[in-house]
Protein: Aspartyl aminopeptidase
Organism: Crotalaria pallida
Amino acid sequence: MAKEESHGVVSDLISFLNASPTAFHAVDEAKKRLLGAGFKQLSEREVWDLVPGNKYFFTRNYSTIVAFAIGQKYVAGNGFHLIGAHTDSPCLKLKPVSKVVKGGILEVGVQTYGGGLWHTWFDRDLTVAGRVIIREEKEGSVFYSHRLVRIDEPIMRIPTLAIHLDRGVNEELKINKQTHLLPILATSLKAELNKVSSESGKQANDNTGTSNTKHHSLLLQLLSSKLGCKPDDICDFELQACDTQPSIVAGAAKEFIFSGRLDNLCMSFCSLKALVDATSSDSSLKEETGVRMVALFDHEECGSDSAQGAGSPVVLNALSRITNSFSSDPKLFDKGIQRSFLVSADMAHALHPNYMDKHEENHQPRLHGGLVIKLNANQRYATNAVTSFIFREIASKHNLPVQDFVVRNDMACGSTIGPILASGIGIRTVDVGAPQLSMHSIREMCAIDDVKYSYEHFKAFFQEFTHLDAKITVDI
């Protein structure tokens, strides 16, 4: 990859991260990029009319997105070449009733989502972002719209307790997730003064208040101002606390990315960009016999069990609908699954220099070392010798580094969407991810070289898999 192109990949990732404070925003940004690259949006509610050589995508719940490009030589029964990642990250989500007042302070009630490093959320400049359901009147009728919202400026903070009031905090930090993680929005005094000032500056027929008692009126006013509606037009929302510090290239040698949500927006971005670039020219799909696909799921951080998670039928439905668009023979779908391959892409644990003993001595992924192939004998990852070989062979052909990871035998192993999709669909799967530090912190870090390697590896996978798979014999 040329230096200019590799720099472009990293700066493009930074733009993607800064545009994606939530899973909804990540899907929205992915949608914009796909439309700009000539992909056509489909609806799961409608019949699909698909054409070989064309590119498509659909969203589910606007927090999961599936994009695919059909090879010009595709026929029903051929395989799907899929990269799966996820759009969600551990965070603090606002409760259905978020209004909390204690000690003359307005606080915001939140739920912990996923397995976050919650101590990293203290003393950060926070805001809110997510989606809102708004009531709108058009030509005498009432309609309800889904709108994304993000307040750019810091409006909340979770302050730590002074060491003078907890002398042992540096020896043992204990966080009560119910009582210690509530962000402060304002003082009651200032909130009331703000309300009076706002009302006095408006005409009498202006609705500056709200009948909604579940959330602070100050928060609803901020949201309605951003959305250009009245507070009472906000019917419901799914919001989360977000760090306002932007993603950046950093480090003394400018070799790192410091950002929230690298797990797993980094892999989401690399797979999406790889698909777009591997299908960008008129000749990209000319000799392709399969379907190149990317699926970015919500709810991985809490188990994937939802209508839009990897545990749902969303991918199985897509594969079936694509196959059935070209043939009504039900036997061809099963044939296509056995010719398919999934790359489950989720960030990996880089070796931490201050905790060397946390890695098995022969499996220590390094920053700048390339994608990590994850293996686990107990199937917490879905990689096996065949799927690992395929991914390594693609790397070898393109001079890309790869690394290996297994967890220590005396430590628990996490998991990914890989085993979920492998067992649910019956598709060959390899689990991989770029190495990173500070996983599940509000502020994570990875190496820029690994972003470039990941993008190149995923792009090569789309371009090489059909040819390589034809040379592999296992169940014959």
